[in-house]
Each structure stands twice: as structure tokens, then as C-alpha cells.
């Protein structure tokens, strides 16, 4: 019973929590957690990769990648290995060293997590910490040995071995961690009394369960922000970022001063705004469809139609393109059908750039309008039937009921969706336009997202495309805030 | 609720005209959503010579399933199919487990700094470092050219976490409290109470997640530039749609004489039929699960409107 009540309030037994919990240990543990976090971040930072002992290791690779993916580590060295400039053993040594270093850092993190528990946890964590820092140091030693091997290969102009200064940084931090561990374990923390159980405050237990997912979000959503620094360098794929190619705001002013780029941006912005604008102008269509669907006497008929017109929403844009080809290309259905009627035609309706904006709108609507209507269908079915009955008694006709009951009850939903679509006016996505792009329509189909893709990925102009992407992110955020403020002002509710 | 505005109501001429228009409009619209798939299908099961001449428009001619059988010999399509299936199964599974677990954790008020951490996840829906920084990040992590790039970034899906959290909050708290009383831990409660009770919402996010994985094209395009073996089926289809090869050439027809090659071209997969057949292979899984999906539509879209 006492156990249960303890769990309910989330408090571990008081005497155990207080054991070894002094101001000194508390401060040292805070230091230790910060140290673990810093080392974890450093492991992701390519500029400080101790495993980069030779120019054959890619400049943009972090210690984490070097220690987890042998394929990436040797990705640029295929030729060097084949010609025998370096031996695979040296690379294996480098890989093993990096892996050990990563494991050491992870042990530090594990200790930082365990330090949230009671004395028993803390002492176990310290053991792991000390072992981890030793493993880390051993790993760094392994990397150093690998460096010695690389430096001994005769083809130095190819191998370009160089001692990575980051080893000192990591070794220093590892030593600091080791000293902290020794201090805590043997000087500051008392021995755990016999029979003490592993216990941790509920709030920290829950937090630690959550932590791996926060880490994933950090790595895939926050860490890319680091990539914005490419906007300030004259970076070429495979190159490096350092003081020598620092470019300041060159690429930002490039947008406005270079006439070719400026014209590209203007053209792309025109396409983007035109297509988003057409989308916004037709944003009432799903609502209209939902109202029309609600007018069928047979519920079953209405459901069936709804099911059928929602199908295109669930196929990819590539498949939409496949459908478009099957229907409208030279040997597609339309031409085949025309020839049945005795009209010989071999026109490819997908080529050419005339009215491409409208065509894209049409495909977008074909794909999405049935799905978008569903939310309004649901809203209509949520309207109180008594409203309609009362209106009927008052002698209202069918269209009057639509005008005075259905439409007003749908407008709040509509206004939210409209505001959201205005906020995302710059984000059309690239998939639709990528698949429908061809030599003839490329200029008028290229929206901002596709432009960034073709600039950065297809043409390798990383800094400029990063700048464009940054601009887009900022403008979109501002638009989202504006839309939210408008919504708060008009409806008194947030939309985000 | 349908037909509610004209219940027990005498139709005027305008109303009748509207009814006729309404039925016709939706029949045509529904036809436009179904016919293309029917057209693709009849062309893949017809005599390929007829297909090449453009004679198969409404009905199949000379029904046979050889095209699907010959597709087995096109190895890159098979590989792409395996990649797409694997990422759909694995990616969806991990996403659902993670979303349900995280969705459960963020309902726990005792969690240290819960509000901060919840916002830390949710805010990622509203900003985006951009395509290029995202790509460079994957390069830095060594994930380009690796199957993991399809799965790991999608594990934490903020929107689905919101859906699950909202759903779990609607489960009576007494259930959990009594389990806590009985000494069950959080993991145990999650496994034996929360998980079974949230099956409807988990099914919803699983279905939408699976469709998303199956349809994914852009990540294959961006991250697999030098690993064609890991192209998704959508990516492979896109490539086939834009090339005009026939199966004779694909299978290395160099060893056969030109007459035989011509024969192969006529009778087996010509460019048009290849495109149609791979398209069908890509659509069929979606159409198979589609009937089961429809009942989750409204749930999914309505829950999306209730953000917490």
C-alpha cells in the first residue's frame, strides 16, 4: 500500500533521495550533464571530426557518421583503396577508433541520464562514466594509430594525412569527464546502503522515456538549421567551409544584383503566386461540392460518389502523371477516342506551356477536391436538424436553407482553411510540378520549391539555393503569424 | 443528414433542374476518377498489338495476363517493389509505435518540463530548415544512399502525436488511476490499457502513414541519387514513364536477330504497355486497401481539426 501511494504522488522514499544529494554533487552533476550534451553535439559537427586524419575522409562527415557507417567513411576512397595508396586495415582501425569514441560519448550520455536517479543509479552511472571515458580515450588513441598508418603511406600527395587537432579537444573533455567521475564516485558520494533499490523520480523516468524521441526530432528537424551557414560561404559540393571561402552576405545580395538570378526569382515567384492564387480563388469549390453532395436524397448514392471522388487523393503525383499520360499523350485515350470518331489526331496535350497554370490547377483539383470536401460533409452532418425543420415550418425553400443555414455554418471552417492556405502561399511542394515538367513547359511550371530543388540538387549551387530556402522559411513564418493574428482578431481563436 | 434541405418538400422546376444537374455532374466526376484506372487495366490485359495500335479504349481485346508475368523479368521493378513494401511496413510500424508512446507520455503531467518538450516536438510542424539544409544534414549523417533515410526521419511525426494525445485524453482517467493503484508501471499501463483502447486512432494514422510511405517519391529522388538499387517503386515508375524502352531491349535483346526482336516488340511489353503495367502494379496496393480506408476518413480529418 505504501508503495502504491508513493508511485501515485511520484515521490521516491525521502531518505534514499537525500543520500549523497549535496550542493557539491548537484553542481558537479549539472556540469557533467552539460559536458555530455556538448560532446554529443560535437560528435555531429563535421568541422571537429577527430577521425578526419586524411583528406580521403569527406570534409562534411561528422565523428558520428565516421563511427557508424563504414561505407560513408570510405565513400570517397574507392580509388585510393583500389590503387593501394592506402590499406583497408588503416581504414578499419580508423573506423574502430571512431566507433569506440562514439560508444564512449554515449556512455557519458547514459551517465548523465542515470544521474537523475537515486544514489544507486548515480553510482552505477559513475561506473559507466569512468569506463566510457576510458573507452573514448582508447578510441582516440585508435584514431591516432590510424593517423600514424595513414601518414606512413608513400603516396602522401594523394593521402594527405594530417593530425586532427580535434583529438586534443575530445581527449581533454574525456579527461575532464573521467576526473569528475572519480571525484564523485570515490570522494563525494557515500556508498549505497545494502538493499537499496534502483529508483528514480517519476518525472525524470517519464522524461527519460521521452528523450530518445526528442533526440530524433532534434536530429531531423533542428540540426538541419545548422545548414543555414552554407548561405554565407562560397561552398561547392564536396568542398569545405572555412575562413578562406567565407562570403558574408554575398549570396543574399546576389538575388537582387545579378540580373539573371533576379529574373529567375521573379519568374518563379510569378509561377508560385499564380498557382497558389488560383488555388485560393477556387478554395470554395470543396465547400460547394459538399453542399451539393448533401442534396442527394439517397444517402447511399452520396456515400458512393464520395468514395469514388476521393480515390485520386490517395495516389501519388507520379501516378497522376501516369494517368495523365494514359489519357492525354500522343497514343493515349483521348487521341484513340477521337480516331474512333473519325478525327485523326496525335496531339500530346501534356507538352507545351500554354495555360499550364490552369492545367496544373485542374490536376490539383482532380486529385484533391473530393478529399477536401469530406471535412465540409462532416460539418454539414453536424448541423442540428432542428434548424432545417424550423426553417421548413417557416416556409423556407431549399436554396434559402442552403443560403441561410448550411453556408453560414460552414464558413468558420472555411475561413480557417483559407487563412492556412494563405499562410502557405509559397509552399506548393515540388512533386506535382516536378513530374509534369518537360522541356517545353519548364519555365512556366517552376514554382519556388522546384526552383530550390533544381538549383541546389540538380545544379549544385548550394549557397544560393540555401538563401532562397531561408527566405521562403522566413516569409512563411511571418505569413503564418499574420494569419494567426487575423484569426485571433476576427474569430478570437488561434489557428496554430 | 443528406437531402435534408428538401425533406418533404415539393420540388419547383428550378429544384428539379438542379437535381438533374447534380446527378449528372457527380456521375461524370466519379467517372473521371475511375475510368483512367479502368483504361490502364484493360490495356495491360489486352493483346499488346491492339494496344500499340490504340484500339483498346473501352473493352479489353484478347484477354491475357502475360504482361504481369513478363514484368517479373524486369529486375529493377522487382527491387523497387521490395524497397517500397519494406519501407511501408517498417516505417509505418515504427511511426505508429512511436506516435502512440510519445502521445501517451505527453499526457502525463508528472513529466519533467512536459509543456516545453511537447512544444519542442510540435513546433517542428511549423518551421522547416529547407530542402537543401535538410539534404546536407542527411549527407552529414551519412544517411544518403541508405535505406534508413526512408524510415528514421519519419518516426517522430508531430501531427500524429497530436492526434494520439487528443485521443488518449478522451479515455477516462479512472482506468489509468486504478491500474496505478494496483501497482502497474507506466510501460505496463501503456501496453495493456492505453494501446488496446486507442486502436481506432492508431489504425487511422497507420493507414495514412502507410499510404504516405507507399506514395513517397521525393525522398528517393533526392537521397538516392547514386543508389538506384534503393529507388522506391514510384521513382522507378517515374523513370519508366519518361523512357521509351521495350522489354526486348531491357532483357538484353542483343543476342536475338532483328526479326525476332521485332516479334518480341510486337508481342511482349512495348513501351506503352510497360508504362501501363508498372502503373497498375503501383496502383493496385492502394486500391486494395482503399475500401478499408474509407471508414477512417472522417475520423482522421475531423481529429485533425481538433488540435491540442
How would you describe the overall organization of this protein?
The complex is a heterodimer of chains A (496) and B (308). Chain A has helices at 2-9, 14-18, 23-42, 63-68, 70-73, 78-82, 88-114, 119-152, 156-159, 166-188, 202-222, 250-257, 259-281, 285-293, 299-310, 317-328, 333-340, 356-381, 385-393, 398-423, 431-436, 442-445, 448-458, 462-491. Chain A contains 24 helices and no strands. Chain A is extended. With 496 residues, chain A is mainly alpha-helical. Mean pLDDT of chain A is 88; it is low at 1-11. Chain B has a single domain, classed as Orthogonal Bundle (MetI-like fold), CATH 1.10.3720.10.
For this entry, give a set of tags.
heterodimer, A: mainly alpha, 0% strand, B: 308 residues, mainly alpha, MetI-like fold
Task: Characterize this entry briefly.
The complex is a heterodimer of chains A (496) and B (308). Chain A has 496 residues and is mostly helical.
Structural class by SSE content of chain A: mainly alpha
Number of strands of chain A: 0
* Overall average pLDDT of chain B: 84
Shape of chain B: globular
Mind telling me the CATH superfamily name of the largest domain in chain A?
Answer: MetI-like
CATH topology of the largest domain in chain A: MetI-like fold
Distance between the termini of chain A: 44 Å
Q: What is the chains' assembly state? A: heterodimer
Overall shape of chain A: it is: extended
Going by CATH, what is the homologous superfamily of chain B?
Answer: MetI-like
CATH topology of chain B, anyone?
MetI-like fold
The percent of residues in helical segments of chain B reads 55-70%
Amino acid at each position: 500500500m505504501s508503495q502504491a501511494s508513493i508511485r501515485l504522488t511520484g515521490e521516491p522514499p525521502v531518505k534514499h533521495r537525500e543520500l549523497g544529494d549535496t550542493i557539491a554533487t548537484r553542481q558537479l552533476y549539472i556540469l557533467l550533464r552539460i559536458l555530455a550534451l556538448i560532446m554529443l553535439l560535437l560528435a555531429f559537427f563535421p568541422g571537429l571530426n577527430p577521425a578526419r586524419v586524411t583528406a580521403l575522409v569527406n570534409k562534411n562527415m561528422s565523428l558520428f557518421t565516421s563511427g557508424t557507417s563504414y561505407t560513408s567513411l570510405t565513400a570517397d576512397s574507392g580509388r585510393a583503396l583500389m590503387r593501394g595508396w592506402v590499406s583497408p586495415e588503416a581504414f578499419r582501425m580508423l573506423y574502430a577508433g571512431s566507433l569506440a569514441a562514439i560508444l564512449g560519448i554515449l556512455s557519458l550520455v547514459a551517465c548523465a541520464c542515470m544521474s537523475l536517479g537515486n544514489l544507486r543509479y548515480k553510482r552505477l552511472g559513475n561506473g559507466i562514466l569512468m569506463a566510457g571515458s576510458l573507452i573514448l580515450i582508447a578510441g582516440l588513441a585508435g584514431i591516432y594509430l590510424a593517423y600514424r598508418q595513414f601518414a606512413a603511406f608513400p603516396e602522401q600527395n594523394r593521402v594527405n594525412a594530417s593530425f586532427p587537432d580535434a583529438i586534443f579537444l575530445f581527449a581533454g573533455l574525456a579527461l575532464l569527464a573521467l576526473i569528475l567521475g572519480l571525484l564523485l564516485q570515490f570522494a563525494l558520494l557515500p556508498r549505497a546502503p545494502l538493499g537499496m533499490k534502483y529508483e528514480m523520480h517519476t518525472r525524470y523516468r517519464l522524461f527519460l522515456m521521452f528523450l530518445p524521441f526528442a533526440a530524433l526530432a532534434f536530429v531531423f528537424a533542428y540540426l538541419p538549421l545548422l545548414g543555414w551557414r552554407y548561405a554565407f560561404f562560397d561552398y561547392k559540393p564536396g568542398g569545405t567551409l572555412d575562413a578562406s571561402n567565407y562570403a558574408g552576405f554575398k549570396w543574399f545580395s546576389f538575388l537582387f544584383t545579378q540580373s539573371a538570378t533576379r529574373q529567375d526569382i521573379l519568374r518563379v515567384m510569378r509561377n508560385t503566386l499564380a498557382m497558389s492564387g488560383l488555388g485560393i480563388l477556387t478554395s470554395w469549390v470543396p465547400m460547394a461540392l459538399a453542399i451539393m453532395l448533401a442534396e442527394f436524397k439517397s444517402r447511399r448514392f452520396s456515400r458512393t460518389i464520395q468514395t469514388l471522388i476521393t480515390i485520386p487523393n490517395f495516389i501519388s503525383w507520379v501516378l497522376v502523371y501516369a494517368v495523365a499520360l494514359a489519357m492525354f499523350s500522343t497514343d493515349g485515350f483521348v487521341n484513340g477516342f477521337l480516331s474512333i470518331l473519325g478525327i485523326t489526331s496525335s496531339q500530346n496535350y501534356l507538352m507545351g506551356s500554354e495555360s499550364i497554370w490552369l492545367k496544373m490547377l485542374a490536376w490539383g483539383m482532380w486529385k484533391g477536391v473530393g478529399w477536401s470536401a469530406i471535412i465540409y460533409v462532416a460539418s454539414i452532418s453536424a448541423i442540428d436538424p432542428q434548424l432545417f425543420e424550423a426553417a421548413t415550418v417557416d416556409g423556407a425553400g431549399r436554396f434559402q436553407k442552403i443560403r441561410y443555414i448550411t453556408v453560414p455554418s460552414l464558413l468558420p471552417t472555411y475561413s480557417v482553411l483559407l487563412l492556412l492556405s494563405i499562410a502557405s502561399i509559397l509552399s506548393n511542394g515540388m512533386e506535382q510540378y516536378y513530374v509534369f515538367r518537360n522541356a517545353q513547359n519548364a519555365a512556366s511550371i517552376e514554382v519556388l520549391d522546384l526552383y530550390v530543388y533544381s538549383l541546389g540538387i540538380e545544379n549544385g549551387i548550394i549557397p544560393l539555393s540555401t538563401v532562397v530556402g531561408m527566405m521562403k522559411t522566413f516569409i512563411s513564418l511571418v505569413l503564418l503569424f499574420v494569419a494567426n493574428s487575423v484569426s485571433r482578431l476576427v474569430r478570437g481563436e488561434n489557428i496554430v | 443528414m443528406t437531402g435534408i434541405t428538401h425533406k418533404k418538400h415539393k420540388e419547383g422546376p428550378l429544384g428539379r433542374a438542379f437535381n438533374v444537374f447534380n446527378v449528372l455532374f457527380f456521375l461524370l466526376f466519379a467517372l473521371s476518377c475511375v475510368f483512367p484506372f479502368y483504361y490502364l487495366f484493360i490495356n495491360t490485359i489486352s493483346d499488346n498489338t491492339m494496344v500499340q495500335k490504340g484500339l483498346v479504349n473501352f473493352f479489353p481485346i484478347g484477354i491475357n495476363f502475360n504482361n504481369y508475368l513478363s514484368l517479373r523479368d524486369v529486375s529493377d521493378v522487382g527491387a523497387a517493389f521490395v524497397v517500397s513494401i519494406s519501407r511501408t511496413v517498417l516505417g509505418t510500424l515504427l511511426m505508429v509505435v512511436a506516435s502512440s508512446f510519445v502521445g501517451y507520455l505527453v499526457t502525463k503531467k508528472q513529466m519533467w518540463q512536459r509543456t516545453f518538450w511537447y512544444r519542442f516536438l510540435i513546433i517542428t510542424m511549423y518551421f522547416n530548415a529547407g530542402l537543401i539544409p535538410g539534404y546536407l544534414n542527411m549527407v552529414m549523417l551519412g544517411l544518403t544512399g541508405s535505406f534508413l533515410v526512408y524510415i528514421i526521419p519519419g518516426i517522430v511525426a508531430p501531427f500524429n502525436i497530436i492526434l494520439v494525445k487528443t485521443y488518449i485524453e478522451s479515455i477516462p482517467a479512472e482506468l489509468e488511476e486504478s491500474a496505478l493503484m494496483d501497482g502497474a508501471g507506466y510501460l505496463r499501463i501503456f501496453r495493456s490499457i492505453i494501446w488496446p483502447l486507442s486502436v481506432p486512432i492508431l489504425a487511422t494514422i497507420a493507414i495514412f502513414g502507410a499510404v504516405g510511405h507507399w506514395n513517397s517519391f521525393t525522398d528517393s529522388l533526392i537521397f538516392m541519387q547514386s543508389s538506384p538499387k534503393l529507388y522506391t517503386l514510384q521513382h522507378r515508375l517515374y523513370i519508366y514513364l519518361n523512357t521509351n524502352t521495350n522489354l526486348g531491349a531491357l532483357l538484353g535483346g542483343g543476342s536475338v536477330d532483328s526479326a525476332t526482336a521485332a516479334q518480341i516488340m510486337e508481342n511482349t511489353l512495348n513501351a506503352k504497355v510497360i508504362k501501363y503495367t508498372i502503373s497498375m502494379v503501383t496502383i493496385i496496393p492502394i486500391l486494395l486497401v482503399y475500401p478499408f480506408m474509407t471508414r477512417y476518413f472522417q475520423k482522421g480529418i475531423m481529429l485533425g481539426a481538433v488540435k491540442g
